[in-house]
Amino acid sequence: MQDLKTQLVEEFGKDKVVEAFGELTLTVDAADIIKSCLKLRDVFFFDTLIDLCGVDYLTYGQSDWDANASSSGFGRAREAQIDEDRHDKRFATVYHLLSVRKNHRLRVKAFVDEAQPMIKTVTGVWAVADWYEREAFDLMGILFENHTDLRRILTDYGFVGHPLRKDFPMIGEVEMRYDEKLGRVVYEPVSIEPNINVPRVIRK
Amino acid sequence: MAEIRNYTLNFGPQHPAAHGVLRLILEIDGEVIERADPHIGLLHRGTEKLAESKPYNQSIGYMDRLDYVSMMCNEHAYVRAIETMLELEVPQRAQYIRVMFDEITRILNHLMWLGTHGLDVGAMSIFLYAFREREKLIDCYEAVSGSRMHATYYRPGGVYRDLPEKMPQYLKNDFRKPKELEVMNKNRQGSLLDFIDDFVKEFPKSIKQYDDLLTDNRIWKQRLVNIGIVSANRAKQLGFTGPMLRGSGVAWDLRKNQPYAVYDKLEFDIPVGVTGDSYDRYLVRMEEMRQSNHIIKQCIDWLRLNPGSVMSNDHKVAPPNREAMKDDMESLIHHFKLFTEGYCLPEGEVYSAIEHPKGEFGIYLISDGANKPYRVKIRAPGFAHLAAMDEMAKGHMLSDVVTIIGTQDIVFGEIDR
Tell me: the pLDDT tens digits for A126-171? Predict the structure, then answer.
């Protein structure tokens, strides 16, 4: 792994490569994602994309005791505190690469802008990215430029919102029931209240 | 002349061969598949979102419910992610127990796959035979955790408790004759290890039976050979792992290539296919069952000789024992803290992957230093496999779609999460 690290540092720069818990993380610019991925595939032999996911860093490092208590009292449910500094670093797409040939793993991270969370698709580099990108779009709302089939994948047909974003409530926005009079399923705003059983604490 | 056009066919989600809730939109030209568009998410429960709102230990149970035919393997990936971040030492005995149950789980999974795959393709009887053995292994789950499926047996720091000294027996009731009862309890006289040992001895005979039923069966071969061929390079492009990748001839197995737990101390082989068709994948999985059997045997032998602790002594993560709690203040505090607040992980991120029966199952965990994960991403092997459905089914007949679903070993709990 140290060899790989040295090579990556040579290629991408010292501050881009981080080693932690025995794993390597490479941070790349969202604009260069295709170029970097092609290089990783062809020069570093990362022949498989194991995983691709989106991460929302909106409430990173916040514990429940610091946050605003919600208006509904002390169910300990809270409203997410918006971190003003985080706008350009709110979303990240994370790629987990595996080299079957060299027996290496690498994590690649690219931050995308909150105002326009868009990054180029890597389906051309690894075919498997297709569904993973659809998933990241569905759950996190990250758009993948030039993706040919960017439909929702895991949520319901006609779903609104991106559930894994930190400002999407745990209990959801709508609930569904069968209306006997109308003879069909209807959607209504949720009737349950948010509740947190164990508060989130950060201890150093 | 009448105009000939393709038509679309809706397959599932309520179809017995759809393995749960797969909905396929098939574009068909006559009986030949032009395009297959799987619609998934009908079993989406938001596991990742739920895990974000719970202390680490409370999500172990969710892991069982991901791939609900290989429960303990899912747990293994999750607890390993936590252990890596905490840099926690896991006792050797716990590691061996985990490996033994991972392999039991692999057999469980492959038996389920074999039964349903046979059922899909039209071989009814194999299902009954597979479930006969599966029942015994599920009893092992029950003996060790109290639950037949959703065990929640692995915990960060080890396993919940040691293997029971006594295998539970069938009880007398009005419907069982004493003679019958004696036969049923014959292999349950000793400890759990004795019971598994007995299973390990008998299992090769059962595999032989499956072999006799299917391997040279003309109909079985007609339905499987040359169906859904994937080349080695293409398999890597499509993110295949596990038997799907090995079926295409790539000798890649995390247990060998990136060993975790105690796999580096055990002896076993990695079967690989040649052509990468459904029949090769069938053979690979059959051989994997034999290898798993071999690994279980080695674990039993080790476990018999090496008693000891099965849980870490770090009471920040693992609960202290009941007795200590009664008269030791510190243990009481630890217990209280652990079950009300949980424990905090250091800030950082980790990806832990294991060789799950279906392929590479990974947990990507981001922690911001809190007692709950900041983000959990579950890398389910089936997700990548099902994504290749379109490519694998193109040009095949409608009935082959069912074979391909079977050979991919689809379980919706993990795909939809």
Answer: 989 999 999 999 999 899 988 888 888 988 888 888 999 888 888 8
CB contact under 8 A, A50 and B416: no
Chain B residues 248-307 with a CB less than 8 Å from chain A: 250, 252, 257-258
pTM, two decimals, is 0.89
pLDDT digits (tens, 9 = 90+) for B60-93: 999 999 888 889 999 999 999 999 999 888 999 9
Instruction: Test B353 with A61 for CB contact under 8 angstroms.
Output: no
Give the torsion through C-alpha atoms of B401, B389, B279, B72, to 10 deg.
-110
Q: Does B362 touch chain A (CB under 8 A)?
A: yes
Give the ipTM.
0.86
Nearest to B312 by CA among B181, B160, B205, B179: B160
Q: How confident is the model at residue A74 (pLDDT cuts 50, 70, 90)?
A: very low
